[in-house]
Design a protein that fits this description.
- The structure is a single chain.
- The chain is mostly helical.
- About 55% of the residues lie in helices and about 10% in strands.
- It is built from 3 helices and 3 strands.
- It has a 3-stranded parallel β-sheet.
- Helix 1 links the parallel strand 1 and strand 2.
- Helix 1 runs parallel beside helix 2 and helix 2 packs parallel to helix 3.
- The longest helix is centred in the last third of the chain and has 23 residues.
- It is globular.
- The two termini are about 25 Å apart.
- The model has no long low-confidence stretch (mean pLDDT about 95).
């Protein structure tokens, strides 16, 4: 599984986001995750951020309308950039 599209799926809060985080950590090939328009809110955003921090394969994560704090969105963006740079370096080696 390389691309998972869960737009408008009703994922809400920390507990449900933890299930997505489990999928993310259990699938190293997943590179694109679409979660837009799910009400993850602050607690779900933190769970997602922590999960992305532990992975290196996710390069793109769409989070429009998820009610995440700007700081959390920035941290996720930085982690995704880190993953893209690491992937690029490994393919050029």
């Amino acid at each position: 599984l390389r691309h998972l599209d869960l737009r408008y799926c009703g994922v809400q809060g920390e507990a449900q986001t933890a299930h997505i985080a489990s999928i993310l950590q259990g699938n190293a090939a997943l590179s694109h995750l679409e979660l837009s328009w799910n009400l993850l809110e602050a607690s779900g955003g933190q769970v997602l951020r922590d999960s992305i921090r532990m992975t290196s394969g996710l390069f793109d994560c769409q989070l429009s309308g998820c009610r995440l704090a700007d700081e959390t969105l920035q941290e996720i963006a930085e982690l995704l950039l880190r993953n893209r740079k690491a992937h690029k370096a490994s393919t050029q080696a």
